[in-house]
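Late entry, evening session. Most of the bench is empty. Finally got around to the prediction I had been postponing all week. Sequence below, unchanged from the version circulated by S.P.
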Amino acid sequence: MDENDKKIVMFVGIFILIIVIVVIVINVFWNKKSNQFLIIDGTLILEKQGNKWSQLTDLNDDVLKATYTIDNGETSHENVKLNYNNNKWYYMDQNYHDIDDNNFRIAYSNMDKIKLGSFTSQYGSDEDINLIDQVLSKQNIENYQSFLPNTRKTIVDLDNDGTNEIIYTTTNISLSYDGKKQMAALFLVKEGEVKQVIDINEKNPYWVTEILDLNNDQKYEVIINKGDIDIRTFNSCYQIYEMENNKLKLQQDCTLQNK
């Protein structure tokens, strides 16, 4: 083999090596982008697809193989492996040592840090009956006291104006039907006034699940569970709301899918 042949062989080898490296890099980059998972409240699993979030109804291999950052709003752990057994999440570091943190609010993989909102939740009290009455005044409800055990107030400054909004979820829907008219409502209060009645229905109670900046746009999204009376599961319905023009606007409805 003369010098020219050796050069040709060397160039071909380098060319093949470059192609292999490019393929590996593209494969790694593609997998990283396609496996962006977010787990909220232990039962909501979202996968980011472009600018949308798709809800998964089961734990597939990709979810369990991913590496996560878990965050409870005060502390976080990176490079965490997750396992799910007997309706309980377990967290391990890269050496598979247990991480003692049973109160994580979110776990996310292959994405920038997600900012969690600071909010407080309170049970309803007698002082809330007037507000509930305003919202349900046309529904012929006999006793608003029956709503208080399942009334929750989520207090948060959603629009960063220094004044808190209060997201009310209230219902008298229960697993044991007592013959009385059953209703559920989702509404927004600010400075003691009902600013928005988002929904009133006879079937689906609402519960605020989490508040966080999903898209890193300095705006908080509100994750709301719809329809569960008792226990939430992976295939429960979740909605995504965002504050827009002083009102909560539905950004994304339930997007259940099996994968």
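Two things to note before I forget:
The first strand starts at residue 37 and ends at 40.
Residues 3-34 form the longest helix (32 residues).
Will write this up properly tomorrow.
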